Fold these 4 entries.
Entry 1:
Amino acid sequence: MQKTPILIILGSAIILIGFVVISSLSNKNSNTTPAMITPPPLSQEVASPSARDIAGTFEYFWGNTCPHCKNVAAFMETWPLKDKIKIDKKEVYDNQANAKLLVERAAACKISKDQIPVPFLVIPSGICVSGDQPIIEYFKKINL
């Protein structure tokens, strides 16, 4: 009969430890910045650039471990207009000021905080483009 209380205490302790471990993992994951969500490639049609857009400065938000961002970076490295268009590149995974700015820009484009993707481009006219292929296609449409 003395084994029963010990087993109850031991079982309760194991359950409590499991609860603490699961809670701490959940809290750790909930501290992830929403800006780190990476979308699947989008197939949306992107508008053609206007003269106003080309003359302004683009804001490009990216993450240093984002595979879609790497696709855009590879395009930009070989893009013939890379030195003729003003693009303000802002890394958001390690730079909290840039991540906060991304949240503000996404809100202006009616994107909820928990749905913000990278890569994310804000065109000077205020239009938002997300996903590697839509961003690359937009840049390919620029003619100078």
Entry 2:
Amino acid sequence: PDALVEEEIDFIIDRLKMDLESRGLSWEQYEKYLESQKRDVRKDKHDVAEKQVRLRLVVHHLYKAEKIEATEDEVSARVEEMAMAYPKEQQVKVKENCKKGNPGYVQVENILLLEKLLKKFVHDVA
């Protein structure tokens, strides 16, 4: 659905903003660069976002079928671990973005779910 693709584009842009900030660049600088190249970041990310949404829907079905879940404690622990990879001044922003109800939380939860799914299938195959 278009709404999910648009939401995914927002998510991709949020990650891009965080990445730029961690490198000492501002979103405004990046936007000016894109304008000078006559590029639209939303259009540039549309195809990638659409593929990610399709993949996420399939994988979500597998989570349900295999009864795979991630607890709040697991997500919190992973957020703490991830935040340590950023400069100290960015760690607070990372943690804020990854609080329950924020897009980062969902991203971390999805990482954990995918890891569990892969472990299950690798374990079942081995």
Entry 3:
Amino acid sequence: MNRNKHILLVLLVFLSIGGFIYSSINVFTAMKTMDQVMRLVRDYYVNSVEPEKLLDYAIEAIADSLDAHTTYLDKSDYENLMINTKGEFGGLGIRISKRGDYITIIAPIEDTPAYRAGIMQGDKITAIEGTSAKDMKLNKAVSMMRGTPNTDVTITISRVGIDESIDFTITRDIIKIKSVPYAGIIDKEIGYIRLNSFSKTTSSEIKNALDSLIDQRAKKFILDLRGNPGGVLSDAVETASFFIGRGKEIVYTEGKAVHNSYNSTNGSYRQYPLVVLVDGYSASGSEIVAGAIQDWDRGLLLGTRTFGKGSVQRIYPLQNKKALKLTIARYHTPSGRCIDRELVDDTTKIYHTMGSLHREVRGGGGIIPDSILPYSTTDLFTKIQTHNIGFNFVVSYTSKHPSTNAVTKAMIEDYKKEVKEKEIEFSKEAWDSSSYYIKRDLERRLAYNKWGSKGMYEAILPKDEHIQTAVEILKNVKVPSDVFVKS
């Protein structure tokens, strides 16, 4: 390693432990000292040192000391980030996770090679191209399964209820990740759109969904942002622009070297009454959309306080195909509320909306809905969910009873036994009080297992209390401002 790299490395290490104060020490003297330290380490340290690893540790330490969203991305992380924001990649179309010794398929993505080949939720990957997948790391599995479109890869699957392993030879294809997994009419003139992320394709997907629902005579809309973690800023701004008049501010950012304002460029759907659903996992881009819609009195927000991830990150590519994701600014809604909960966590301060109603809204630190509707549950159901018993149970049950199309009493009784086998203690009263949530969860999992995401949404939407509350609000409204009266 040459002299300059020595100096940079040690300087980064020194910065990472907070020992270098740029304004109070001569930088050249410091660099000379750092170079001296590196030479001592190189010449006299008892063990050999890999400079690149030291550099990785130093940058990671710097990133970790700043804020929760500043991150050092290694080659694999950087590639995955680019894939997620572009919305497509070459592969099979499966979401996977490591459970025990083997990789488990959490879900095949609808209308992908894996889905069409018959890969199922709960399948375990035991081999890829004949190489055992036992104890294989996720990154390696992903790299082996991804490849050039129209090439084949063979994966070996172990499935509950089947004694022998199954080989699937699947032809790779471009996998498009949908931001809008479902859109449909849920009550006469009310259209529902589920938006689960913001990628480069989001704005076109939203527009297509809106136009399709309007063709089906939708005149009012529910936009579901629950659990939406955010994504590409430009598409979040454009999504909000569909509902907000042209030229009106959607969001502005403030940072040391960043001061930007983003305005609506559309407004094509501003005449339609709107309810937006949010929760504690709605973050970043979804908070921008929700905050702008609320600030312009454009729609009613229903649910719980959002996550409060209101900071702006920029990706700075580094050498060796690595990158630094650095927080450079924070988001503010048009009324001035700071979305970022790390900076501000005060829900008592009063702001006023920018629309004609001039309503009071609270902030900042996350977006507080106009109508608070918490999620009702029970301790027992929460405990069952934590253990993820439902996932494995439905996979096993449908393997043994392939004709099952609905949750029956017999199925619930078997599930009750499964819960007991997991040593979760409960009384008859606790089970009875949780039965509604347990059945609804099993219905959701069964519908997805049998009919994919479309079937799942059609099964759960009629029983979703937040959606049904939104429907009741929208039923008799005629203009957008009516939603605030009806709520």
Entry 4:
Amino acid sequence: MSDAAEIHAVRLVGDADWIAAAELCRVCRLDLEAVVELAELGLEPPRGYPPEQWQLPAAALPRLALAGRLIRDLGINVSGAALAVELLE
């Protein structure tokens, strides 16, 4: 039996970098509607219009990943996840 290894390209991002909403959804395992609602609740301000073309700051990645885990793993609604992330900070 052979071991197969996947190699992914890695690029470090800094605070000044922006990530496309579609990529952020994939990485954080969130749907776009949840990201839109989180942005409307003030968790992270996006740039661009419409939401499909949004870009979010790279610094938002940990916050949105945490919100995604709360929504997915604990069944918390989007508003509750946004509040929990704010309180944890």
